[in-house]
Amino acid sequence: MEILKRLLAPRGLPPTKDGYQAPPDALAEGWVCDDPDCGEAGYFAAPRPGIPRRCQVCGSGTYPRHAWPWQHGERRAELDALLDEAERKDDEILAVLVRFHLLTWTFEDHLMNGHRRDAMAALSDTDARLRETMSGDRCFTEGSYRFALVLGALRSGDPDIALRVLEPWVALAREQGPGYGTDLESDNASRTDYRCLVSACIEWLRDARTPADPRYGTVVGWVLDTARAPHVRNWLTADHDAALTVLDPRWGSGH
Ligand SMILES: [Zn+2]
Prior knowledge:
The protein has helices spanning 2-8, 70-88, 92-112, 116-136, 143-156, 159-175, 188-206, 216-228, 238-247; strands at residues 28-33, 41-48, 62-66.
């Protein structure tokens, strides 16, 4: 009877590499092989309650890649494991990066729980730390973290909160001049920062809630200004170009 019950019970997803066990109703958007030498992964067209038990290439076991919102729990376990590893190996560079990922995770976690005030406190803490780290290390790339804050605000909060991330970021970029005050041609960190700012504005403009927002035009101005800054336009991606052409049909003609 016990065996029958177990066979008939919903299977649920197995734990991840870092030990995150999702609740029984969780869905996966894909799977990844548990053998790092193989690294095979698959994605589903739509989230599913189960994953293949064996890797389709090498036959080893599999880990789930969770769909949202369970991905949030999976991510936390991954970041905790990475921080443990960084501290164990005395790897301060990795530790700094992981701590910033944890800050952006915490910001979104507060939003997911409806704790807006805590989210704002986490945001201003993250902003202060990014400024401090940027001033001490010109190779540090803050853009990917600020981009994660904008995505988190749109996904788990609202466009207003996302603007609380974007507005000071735009001001910072303008203050520091094109290329964050450096020569973009030889400065990979600044190029990444600028691309992230352009991407973040585009994400905000693409959100279903923003076309009616009175600040839509302001954000269009921000993204076009940033993208047109000397050197920046040469380092944008084809996706950026496509999105900018929708916003300004003259974009591609060099005006
Ligand atoms: Zn495999």
